[in-house]
Amino acid sequence: MDQQYMVFLLLLLLFFLFQVQLVAAETSSQDFSGLQSLTQSWTNKPPNWVGTDPCGSNWDGIRCTSSRITQLKLASLNLVGQLSSAIQLLPELDTVDLSYNTGLTGTIPKEIGNLEKLKSLALAGCGFFGPIPDSIGSLKQLTFLALNSNRFNGSIPRSMGNLSNVNWLDLADNQLEGPIPVSDDQGQPGLDLLLKAQHFHFGVNKLSGQIPPNLFNSSMILKHVLFDNNKLVGTIPHTLSLVTTVEVVRFDRNGLTGEMPSNFNNLEKLSELYLSHNEFNGPLPDLTGLNSLTYVDMSNNSFTSSDYIPSWVTSLESLTTVILGDNQLNGTFNISNDYSNSLQLINMQNNVITEYEPGSQTISFDVILAGNPFCLENGVSQKSFCQVPEVNPSYSTPQNNCSPQTCSNSQISSPNCKCAYPYGGSLISRALSITNFNTSDYKDIEQSLMDSFGLHSLPVDSVRLSDPVKNSSINNFQFTLSVFPSQTDRFNRTGVLLIAFVLSNQIYKPPEFFSPYFFTGSSYGYYGGEPKKSSSGHTGIIIGAVLAVLAFLVLAVLAGMYAIHQKRRAQRTKEKNPFANWEQTKNSGIAPQLKGARWFSFDELLRCTNNFAKANTIGSGGYGQVYQGVLPSGELVAIKRAANESRQGAVEFKTEIELLSRVHHKNLVSLVGFCFEKDEQMLVYEYIPNGTLMDSLSGKSGIWMDWIRRLKVTLGAAKGLSYLHELANPPIIHRDIKSGNILLDSHLNAKVADFGLSKLLLDSDRGHVTTQVKGTMGYLDPEYYMTLQLTEKSDVYSFGVLMLELVTARRPIEQGKYIVREVMGVMDTSKDLYNLHSILDPTIIKDTKPKGLEKFVELALRCVNEYGHERPSMADVVKEVENIIELVGFNPNSESATTSESYNVEKGGDVIHPYVKEDFHYSGSVPSVKLEPQ
């Protein structure tokens, strides 16, 4: 009877507490419940999300109208989790901005189409993947849609043609494929129906097929038409000239052919035209009359000319830059005396021009004719116009008439010489009008940023632009933006959210030469000045006291019940041994000796993967399936579940568990736990978002690996391996180092993975372990193969092969050719770049000679020496790679502050998740094998 009375009292108190809260709260109970459901699994939520009244308590990022939640502005909060179907439980939403939260992953739920009042949806720079749901076409009120810089795949939904009010449509920097959808006779919608759209941003995807002629019509008001870096073929339709509002056109880096439309000069507002890296032919298009045109790039095609350059090249009054290199232009390059004062550069390199007539007057712009027959003549080859100038942009906002402060605690001196913690990220232009890096242009951008922040009353003291970089692979230009707080040394969450929202929703309008742009924000770790919680106007002292008393009573009752529950649970745990069935498995050995890793029950992993739902599958292979899961704590994990027919041996499974549970280093993948019950073998890893190094080198992950990033990956992997050899106790030999076992996190830091074949080097082993040969062909140490003696130098050999793979982007064994022999065969230390041009990855030598490459190759070849005692240790490798990075001009100990989304470039192939062991990521791959001794 006492127990029943206690339960009744508890229920009565809870009911009363609920009623009091309903009276006191300003937030609709339906919306609060919906918000709780949506964010239940999220981590890193703002600390002032306390209580049950987000509207009345002014929760960060939540805005309400008449007790209903109408806006979620949560950009750049480092949120981790998924966007669940519970989003539909907030039906009054008109704005959702979750941009720059790389930890938000998974697919977009189809239920998002139920938000009938949604006007702005920004999910830029997150980790979302999978197809864009058709239901997004139901958002009829939508005016702004930014899904760029994620990993969406599949086709562009036809239903987007129903977004009749959309103005901004950005799907760039994803993996979308298939044709461009247009309406048809059967009433199917398409993009041609978006008559209010001004922005078509579809670059850096895998769209294919021809550009449909009916994609464009005279009723459109498009300003930006961006389809660069896709797989489009055929010709540019003449209907594009019907859209007379167009200002920027990008069809560069596709497979377009034929001649240009003859009516192209109808685009009177056109300011930038990018057609490079296609297969256009015929004469150069007539652009006469396009007096708004400032920048033209038609390089890397097959355009021809007849003994003259079209007059528009020098006469268009606004034109600053003309790039016509790598075509078939021939004859005489004649510059008349009548040319525009705006002209800054004409680049005609690598054509077949035989004469150059600069005219009688001194020209005030640059001319580049390098690579033409004319420049091979004696006395001409050394002329400035026969050279390709090195462009190394360098800029950082100068101090504002003050001396920089010496700051501490990771603070930075602002342009106004105040020590503070800035918020920042990468500001990226999809146009290249700023190519000439004019200082006044930077000042214009800085001033426009300050004007925009001031207009919206944001707490900004100053901004700094730095580290300008031209990404020639995708024709983008970017620099680092740092925004400094005013009146204090750091932003609170509200300040960061507002700044991020202004940039993510294109509220900031840059100067014309920098438009179109996008921003990728970094997480901010220095929050301060958090607003104090204030009670609602009608929530007085009496209600607060009542709530406190009730809360105390409820907590007291719950504490008693919890103590009883925990006591019983502890007793059950004591009686249940999670390893009880381990030794029943044949040849499994003793149970694993764990140091930090957690045992998961099968039912736990079933729940966190939604019953191993197909939607949670992020990879598959001979090993089995890999699932993304969310633990109750909100932590994202990757769960590798062995298939029935291909489980590894219990001993190897145990080896990987034990080794991963006892090693802890930032360059080693972390094991969260494992499951070994109900005839299942599952490993639970930390979630690593950017796949394997092999995927990046092959172009399948879409991550652009320039020289410095390859050096940093080399250093990170070397540090992880050196830790295993030098600091693990006892030392560990990995035995399967390869590009498929190097993972890249969100900052492109390298993490060594897959310890299934690893061996401990005990004191009694005398420096080696005699064991059967296992590993991956192409990476195997020949000394180990011949003697069966595995040493730390066996890992060094594999690492040397990996280094050669990094500089060549070739597989270790490709078409019967072994990478080590190939490099040695062409190497000549007396020649430039050691005569390795033919075998190096063109990506890293395209624009400039990579510093330190020769030393890098020398180090790699020492690692693959035939005899182990002549190879360096991994500690030595770390030191030498650090020296090479310092030679390049970077701090080898610095961490990348830019997330991987800013590196996305030409994307090809399906993204395969990194946690699958087999090397099936790209065709003709080297198989992982286990070689038994003869």
From TrEMBL:
Signal peptide (UniProt feature, chain positions): 1-25
Bilayer disposition of the protein: Single-pass type I membrane protein
TM helices/strands, residue ranges: 541-564
Location in the cell: Membrane
Gene3D superfamilies listed in its UniProt record: Phosphorylase Kinase, domain 1, Ribonuclease Inhibitor, Transferase(Phosphotransferase) domain 1
Gene Ontology terms for molecular function: ATP binding; protein serine/threonine kinase activity
Ranges for domain Protein kinase: 612-885
Residues that hold ATP according to the record: 640
The protein's enzyme class: transferase
Xref: SUPFAM superfamilies: L domain-like, Protein kinase-like (PK-like)
Matches recorded under InterPro entries: Kinase-like_dom_sf, LRR_dom_sf, Prot_kinase_dom, Protein_kinase_ATP_BS, Ser/Thr_kinase_AS
Keyword vocabulary terms for this entry: ATP-binding, Glycoprotein, Kinase, Leucine-rich repeat, Membrane, Nucleotide-binding, Receptor, Repeat, Serine/threonine-protein kinase, Signal, Transferase, Transmembrane, Transmembrane helix
GO CC, alphabetical: membrane
Pfam family, one: Pkinase
EC code: 2.7.11.1
Protein name stated in the entry: non-specific serine/threonine protein kinase
Source organism: Lupinus albus
